[in-house]
Amino acid sequence: MEPRYGRLQAILKRLHIRSICALPLTTAHRKLGAITFGSKQVDAYSPNDIRFVSQVADYIALAFDDAFNFAALRRRLRNCRVRTTVSGCSSTSRIRLSQIWSSATSCVPSRMMSGV
Fold first, then answer.
1. Residues 64-87: pLDDT tens digits?
2. Same domain, 71 and 108
3. In the predicted model, what is the mean pLDDT of the chain?
4. Is residue 59 located within the same domain as residue 112?
5. Residue with more model confidence, 80 or 103
6. In this structure, what CATH number is given to the domain that contains residue 60?
7. How far is residue 84's CA from residue 109's CA, in Å, rounded to a whole number?
8. Are 18 and 64 in a shared domain?
9. Are residues 11 and 48 in the same domain?
10. Are residues 17 and 58 in the same domain?
11. Helix, strand, or coil here: 80?
C-alpha cells in the first residue's frame, strides 16, 4: 500500500483486515467515490467475486447519479416560475400534459434531460 495511505493501513491492521477490494463509483457524468470491501482472509476475492462486485458498484453508481439528477431537476423545476397560462391555455382551459412537460423542461439544461 502506498505511503499516503498510512492512516488507512493502520485502521485495516487494527481490524485484522488482510484483503481489500476497492472499486470506483463512477458514471459517464461524474465520479462519485469508491466502495471498499474488506476481509480477514488473505486473497479473499476471486476474479469472479471482483467482476460481480464491479457490476454491483456500477449499479450503485447509477442509482446515486439518478438520485442526484432527480434532486437537481426538482430544484430547477421548483425555481422555474409556473404561470397560470401554459402555451396559450388559460387555467380554466384544458391543459395537456405534453404542454406542461414542454414548458417545465424548457427551464432544465438539455444534458440533464438526456435519457428522460
1. 999 988 888 887 777 774 544 444
2. no
3. 79
4. no
5. 80
6. 3.30.450.40
7. 23
8. yes
9. yes
10. yes
11. coil
Contact 50, 20 (CB under 8 A): no
As a whole number of angstroms, the distance between CA 97 and CA 86 comes to 10
The CA distance from 40 to 17, in Å, is 4
Buried residues in 13-35 as b, exposed as e (16+ CB within 10 A):
eeeebeeebebebbbeeeebeeb
Same domain (yes/no): 45, 101: no
Segments forming the whole domain that contains residue 13: 3-79
Single pTM value for the model: 0.59
3-state secondary structure (DSSP) of residue 32: strand
Residues 24, 52, single domain; the answer is yes
The total domain count for the chain is 2
C-alpha distances in Å from residue 114, one per residue of 26, 44, 75, 109? 18, 40, 17, 9
In residues, how long is the chain?
116
Give the residue from 63, 60, 104 showing the smallest Cα distance to 82. Answer: 104
Distance between CA atoms of residues 33 and 56, nearest Å: 14
Q: Which three cell numbers stand for residue 45?
A: 476475492
